[in-house]
Amino acid sequence: MTDGILLRVEGSLARVTFDRPASLNAMDFPMARRWRDVAHEVTSDPSIVAVILDANGPAFCAGGDVVAMATTGAAGAEVTATAEAIHDGIRTFVEAPLPMVAAVQGAVAGGGLGLMLTADYVVASDNARFVSRYANIGLTPDLGVSTLLPAAIGQRRALQLLLQDRMLDAAEALDWGLVAEVVASSDLPTRVEQIARFWLDGATAAFGQATRLVRVGAGRSFADNLADEAATIGAAFDTPEARARVAAFAAASAKGRS
Questions:
Q1: Which family does it belong to (predicted)?
Q2: Which residues, 6 or more positions from 154, have their beta carbon under 8 angstroms from its beta carbon?
C-alpha cells in the first residue's frame, strides 16, 4: 500500500513520486501522512544526498483533495490536522541539506504550487499549467503557498495568482521565475535525471548545504545567516572531498598562470 506516494532509493538518490493519477495526484488524508513520513525517512538517511520529486499521470498535483474533504464528512479540525502533516513534510524537506529537483507536468493547482516549490530546482514540461483557485472555492492558501510562492516570484505576482483566476502556461511560469527550465514533455525525465546526477557526481555535501543556507536564511536575521555561512564553509573546508577539490582548483589556477 503506497497511500499515494512511491519512494525509491537508487544508491544515493531518492525518488519521491506522487501516485494518485486518477485524482490528479491531489492529496487526501492518507497521502498527507505518507508525505510527512517519506520526508522524515529520506532526510534521516545519511546515504541519500539528492532527491527527485515527480508524479505519475497527466498532472503533477492538484493540491488538496477537495472531493475527499467534501464527501467524507471532514470538519475543519481534520483539514487543519491534514495540512499540518503536509506542512511537516514540506518543512522537513526544505530545511534539510538535500538538493531536490522537481519534474512538473500538466496541472499544478492550489497546494500543488507549494509542494512543487518544496523543490530547490523546478523543471516543467511545455504542457504544464499553474493556477491557484483557492478563493474560487472559498478556501485560503496552505501547503506553504503563502510563503514559498512570494519567495519564488515576488509578493505582487503571488497576489495576482491568489486574487485572480489567472493560469500561467509554462513559458509564463519561466518568465516569472516560478520554474527554472521548460523542456519538451518527452525530455522531462531525462533532464531531471541529468540535474540530479550532476549533484551526485559533484560536491554533493556542498550542494546540500547551499540549499539549506538559502532556504533557512529567509527566516533569520542577517547576522545569524552570516554566522551560519562562516561555520558551514569552515566545516566544509575540513572535509576530504573539499580539500581534494580545492587543491585541484589551486593547481589548475597555478598552471594557468604559468
A1: Belongs to the enoyl-CoA hydratase/isomerase family.
A2: 177
| Of 180, 73, 200, residue with least CA distance to 128 | 180
Q: What residues are paired with 146 via a beta bridge? A: none
Query: CATH: 3.10.350.10, 3.40.50.300, 3.40.190.10, 3.90.226.10. Which one for 5-201?
Result: 3.90.226.10
What gap in Å lies between CA 38 and CA 17, rounded to an integer? 10
Report which of residues 256 and 144 the model is more confident about.
144
Q: Is 97 helix (H, G, I), strand (E, B) or coil?
A: coil
CA dist 243 and 253 (Å) reads 15
* The dihedral sign for the CA sequence 28, 83, 120, 230: negative
In the structure grid, which three cell numbers stand for residue 172, read together? 509564463
Reply yes or no on whether the pLDDT at 103 is more than 70.
Answer: yes
